Amino acid sequence: MDPAGFSAVLGSAVRSRRAALSLSQADVADLAGVSERFVRFVEQGKTTVQLEQLLAVLGTLGLELDVSTAANVSTAGPISTAGPISTAGPAQ
Are 42 and 25 in contact (CB under 8 A)? Predict the structure, then answer.
């Protein structure tokens, strides 16, 4: 997945989870210790967000990044940064 596609999927997941929790962007920002502007950038799919702040927002919302090896990549082959990355909520 390209960075823009990943950022769009991530932004949509963050926005959906925030709405499901009935939190405003300001609420999430306060709880995560980031600016409201940062939360807005994540939800808009900005591709250049800071990882540490992103992880704080995801943790606040009960989301996490899951990095795994792509099914079409052999373990002996070259490493690619385009493998699947998903957002997973807490087990329900």
Answer: no
Q: Can you tell me the distance from the alpha carbon of 90 to that of 38, in angstroms, rounded to the nearest whole number?
A: 23
pTM for the full model? Answer: 0.75
Cβ proximity of 85 and 66 under 8 Å: yes
Span 41-65, pLDDT tens digits: 999 999 999 999 999 999 999 999 9
State the Cα–Cα distance between residues 5 and 28, nearest whole angstrom: 23
Exposure letters 2-21 (e unless 16+ CB within 10 A, then b): eeeebbeebbebbbebbeee
Cα 34 from chain centre: 15
Asked if residue 1 has pLDDT above 90, the reply is no
